[in-house]
Amino acid sequence: MDDQQVSSVRALSSELCCPWEIAAGQRRRLRKTESVPTGELSNENVHLVTTTEMWEEKTSEATENGKMVVVNFSTPWCKNSRVIASTYCQLANKNPSIVFLTINVEELREFCASWEIKATPTFFFLKDGREVDKLVGANKAELQKKIMAIAASPVKSSH
């Protein structure tokens, strides 16, 4: 690895929290910080998804209404998940035409494994239920840029 690659890895690791390791089919955290309540990861415009049924309901509703979905896969004890949560909530308040969801990776482990979450926070951007973009890490500027781009673009539903 050259110096530039090492610098890139260091920069990215400062934005990531809670990298996961898969060992013998089991996921485990590589690092843990203090615990905080899950409620900090959502507000009235950010829906905390706690079941797969709720996921289906919210994403189907968004597709039917021609809305984009932004999903924040996070953990409440992760420092970087908490840091970016306030920005995420502010963006949700400013963009009611977008559906904002938050999923606690520890509460829906099997579901999150199907999305191949390797670190938190990880954001997925969905249109008609399909991934159109992804952001790994607590990069506020990049999250704002991606959300502003989808807010500015016309969304056409396939229905």
From TrEMBL:
Pfam families: Thioredoxin
SUPFAM superfamilies in the cross-refs: Thioredoxin-like
Signal peptide: none
InterPro entries assigned to the protein according to its UniProt record, in alphabetical order: Thioredoxin-like_sf, Thioredoxin_domain, Thioredoxin_H-type-like
Source taxon at top rank: Eukaryota
Start and end residues of each Thioredoxin domain: 30-152
UniProt-recorded name of the protein: Oxidoreductase
Species the sequence originates in: Lithospermum erythrorhizon
Lineage: Eukaryota, Viridiplantae, Streptophyta, Embryophyta, Tracheophyta
